[in-house]
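Hi R.,

Here's the chain you asked about this morning:
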Amino acid sequence: MRTKPRNVVNTSQREWRRIVTALLAALAVIVTVVTMLVLSALNDVAQNTNKLDEERSRETITGALETFQAQLGATLNDYAAWDDAAQFVYAANGHDWVVSNYGDMTVNSELFDTALVIDENNRVQMFYQFGQPVLRSPQELFPTGLTELLKTVRQIPFGQNPETTGFVQSDRGITVVGAALIRPKMALDVPAGETRRYLVFARHLDTAKIKRLSKTYVVDGLQLRKANFDARYFVNIFSPQGEVLGKLTWRSRAPGDVSFREVRPTVLLAVVIAGLFFLTLFFVGSKIIGRIKTDEAHAKEEALRDRLSGLYNRAGLFQRLEQMVAKARLGSDDVNLLYLDLDGFKEVNDSYGHGTGDRLIKGVAAGLKMLVPQDAVLARLGGDEFAVAINGPYSKQQCLDLCEACLLLFSEPFVIGERVATIGCSIGVATSERGEVDGEELLRRADMAMYEAKENGRGRWVSYHEQLDTEREDRNMLEADLRRAIEKDELTVVFQPVVSAKSRRITGVEALVRWNRDGHGPVSPEVFIPVAETSGLIDQLGLIVLRKACMTARRWPEIKLSVNISPVQFRNPSFSTSVHDVLRQTQMEPERLRLEMTEGYFIQHPERASFVIEKLKALGVQIALDDFGAGFASVGYLRRFGFNRMKIDRSLVAALENGGRSLDMLEATVALARSLEIPVTAEGVESVEQASILQLCGCDELQGYLFSKPVSPEEVTLLLERQKATLPRDEQRAFG
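And the predicted structure, written out as tokens:
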């Protein structure tokens, strides 16, 4: 047997050994280099992390100081631009008000701890700190800075915001101080010259506030230092003149160093493992990255979609809308936006449940997809609101055609399983001509136009015009004044007598609310009641009227009291409880109270209406159907709800002058009520002839200007006394 020479074998082994050694050496070098590079990179990351943390802390503290100053500025604006302040501060007898609203507010206040009212000649009108009067001069408490702030405010030109804030040096350290001219909120017609008053608020940057800032903004060791204090991490506090008053310092948490020390052993091990599996991870990683990119693109698209309907959501609409606007600016096309709100969707949700409501939304989305142009953007903005954006050379006509098509679509009922839902829609339309209006403003305009359509009868479309902004502003001011009038108890209640059709003697009164708006005069209930209903004030307003009416009606125990109830109040689940509370508080006999309600709510929500009526009747209260003949109530509804009284709408009474069919209609209406044993009141009676006809037709009570206009409680009392005086003695005793 022949074998290789020993030296040949050794040579071969040595060569393999050299190769293996070289490979191992190369691997060792690679691992060492990679390890050094990784550790160096981690060290760089640690240093960058420390630097970023330092920058973040500096930006955070700078923002905290700005917020601290801005909060005082916002508070100062609220207290200086204030109609009540403009009235009492300049009044000779307003000192108590000034102390109560400014001085006393400095006790334990997070907004300001010092309040000063000073005139044009630097005479102190009121000076409080921490709830106590300050007997020292402002210059002693604020040796620098206050004078300059006041000078700045006084030099602000007419028409601009006469306010300023800044950090100053005080006897307690660094303080943020604000000065502002005291003036009405919506005007600048304050006294001129030496009669002007200025409000100064101060908020000291004391240790407690520094600790709160440190805790709120998660900054360790935050402290207030002098201007010359040597620190590595600090933010200067400047006066309005640019002088460094002090500095806020903190301790760096050095998150990069901490993290680096914790992960270094693991990184060394990971580098070795990473070297062995580098190639495998490279290929696997490539596949994962590709999948992540696909998922990310899918997630971005999903984030712009509404999950229920599959349409674009609000974010998706805004993105596409901005693209349309940008494209329109480059060309000559317009962008048109339709804003749709479903009428009656809430009732479907409440009656049939949210599952049915969700299926209805899907059905609406499917219907709209069939109507909108192919290149249009269809979105669900949330709830029962949808939007359609259209651009192109024919977008305006497409928009108008789509409005009519949508109204036609919603004129038909939607079949949802075994249920049938009848809803409508109100549409607002806005146009951005050649992209002059951005997407956000375009949506706001369309939304405003939609509300105009909803408030003017629903089931229609309205195009935006500038007058809507003015009307909305007027409405907002009316709402604000109404809210203030309710809070200040400025609403009054008058009473219109209701008389017996036979004896023409007073048998009851109807309570009617009146509002004399400050600076505007009387406002019709037809104007402010709808505002109260849409703004959520109607519950409060209605209970005020009910309470005042019941309290007043205690003077007239021999007659009944009628009070109108809004459908919004009737929808409140606690309404019957509120009525019970009013009756208990006013000690009003329930059988004397008659609540009047129009037929709309009974027809739309018969089950809920029946439930509430039963609860009210259980209290002993009577229910009257108001304005009958102006709507669509059927005999079935009259029989179902068992009304205690029916009030004929004034339109039927006014039509008597035409004779013929008007009289036949009136007779039929009264006959219907009498067949159901429901007594009838006719309102709006203005002539003797009308009263006679109504009596002959079977009305047992009459109400109108023929007998009396709405009058004050004192006049009602006088009318009752005169009526009592004309009765025989035995009837006087029965009358009370």
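The first strand starts at residue 114 and ends at 119.

Let me know if you need anything else.
M.
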